[in-house]
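B., you asked whether I could sanity-check this one before it goes into the benchmark set. Here's the sequence:
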Amino acid sequence: MHGCMAGGNIGEVSVLAKDRQKWPGSTSRLREGVDVMANNRLEQSLINEYIGARGHDPDALSALPAAKRHTLLKDASIYASAKLCEVESRAHFVHEIRDALADIPKKTKA
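And here's what the prediction gave me:
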């Protein structure tokens, strides 16, 4: 099964952009940094979705008792990680199908 990477550090993108200026061959690292940033935004959206679905305002979590907040955030993180893995797995599957179709010879009209 395809492994999933959830989470990352948004600060990596600015470091990678600076690296690209020093080392022009680092385009793939920059692309990876952008992917990490997009995953972070998606992960945060999924966490907010989970919290909202449980009847809480994501921006007002500090009003909850610490134990309840911790449990809610832990469960939301697990939910978001599972969803990110699902998205990544589907994308990987689509790429595999696309690659397999590219290998099939095209029929020519006789």
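One thing to flag: The chain has one domain: 11-102. Otherwise nothing jumped out at me.
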